[in-house]
Amino acid sequence: MSNKSAQEMAPAEVRALIRSGEWNVNTSGISSGYVQGNIVILPKSWADDFLKFCQMNPKPCPIVGMSDNPGDFMLSSVGDDVDIRTDVPSYKIFRDGKVVDEVTDIRDVWQDDLVTFVLGCSFSFEEALVADGLEIRNVTEKVNVPMYRTNIECRTAGPFSGTTVVSMRPMKPKDAIRAIQICTRFPSVHGAPLHFGDPESIGIKDINQPDFGDAVTIKEGEVPVFWACGVTPQVALEQAKPPLCITHSPGCMLVTDLRNSQLAVL
Amino acid sequence: MSNKSAQEMAPAEVRALIRSGEWNVNTSGISSGYVQGNIVILPKSWADDFLKFCQMNPKPCPIVGMSDNPGDFMLSSVGDDVDIRTDVPSYKIFRDGKVVDEVTDIRDVWQDDLVTFVLGCSFSFEEALVADGLEIRNVTEKVNVPMYRTNIECRTAGPFSGTTVVSMRPMKPKDAIRAIQICTRFPSVHGAPLHFGDPESIGIKDINQPDFGDAVTIKEGEVPVFWACGVTPQVALEQAKPPLCITHSPGCMLVTDLRNSQLAVL
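Output (structure tokens, whole complex):
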């Protein structure tokens, strides 16, 4: 492993380490400035409906890249030498909606009909917010962002349906206004928040008991601000129960060659 | 007067009616799509500091046009034939900070050292919000928007200082997020809101008792959203007490040839 910090390493270097088995953990904070993606891999017969689900629910399921053709394991749309079978530090394999294995290489389960989706994640917009001087509480408190199931229905596509999962970051109102402006520039990493303030009005019973991730401190004068979250498609996948589905393990993302700034529409 | 509705009349037609004395009332809703401006006229010796005050406090005091030179009464920057001495339906004349007269023509008080400022007003962004399908409560309830003094200090320039006055429109959080996106495109008509939610945190004691304008209904599930307001410079002027100052009368604005859409930065 080189002497460079993981934060400074180019995405291709990181992927080479992952491919060789030298890196099989969390990718948080590595290759700063580059897009990391959530991974969903499905058989072609399920992938068409999943693509439609993402298209109909772009805030929780923003696609930043996908296979050119079924069976392609080289993902040219997100990087020069990305082999999706080996370049993610850890994979979860689901059969009929249940996790059956967690592995660091999927070459032996690869099929000619598999389609890969790379979905944008909040790492990209958090970087833009921090760069603007805003405090991100889950970063400051060094925990996973709190995530909640809501009553906001997704639009259904074939077997894929469910309600939206949101992530929450508490902010002062004036910082929330600035965050809305910044995140509006990044529609492919969840875009502007969906809601702020009263948790109950979107079906969240107890803000201190997230359904996923960790609770964070909400200070006096702050309001919870809610973004659509990439856990939404995972929940839809678990409900749909495809015969085979492969995802990244939590926090172990694909590091792409796309720069976060390239996702900005303005 | 023509048979066209006031809403459809071109700004030049409206100004001709005003100049001839046939129109001396509120300009709300006329020449739809065109920018209406707040007017401030000051002697050159005070105008330099007022310009600096506007520059330092652009959210409450956004300049959309001003005289090319002191003494110029034709305002070429905002329209083809705008004579600021006759083209506003009603003027207030202040001497030493006190209203001394309300008139429909200022040709006889005009001086060679007078400088005119045209400041953006909320009519322009309200039009953009309504066009997007959002409800503006003061429009629906046919009253003046509620306005409040806050504890948000303006930056001081010479004799001009004070706190920011805000206007308030109640919205559901998801509409407030959309309003922030839309208003961000219009920095010269107050731009994005300054605050939402808790009124007390910006020094507003009772949301049902506005300092200017009328109270509006805040429904269950709505939050008050606060924008910087053009009354801010009026308060600063009253405190500064210049020997002469001329403004429009409330609601009786200058109708310019600029289109609201031209104020959009994106």
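Chain A has a mean pLDDT of 95.
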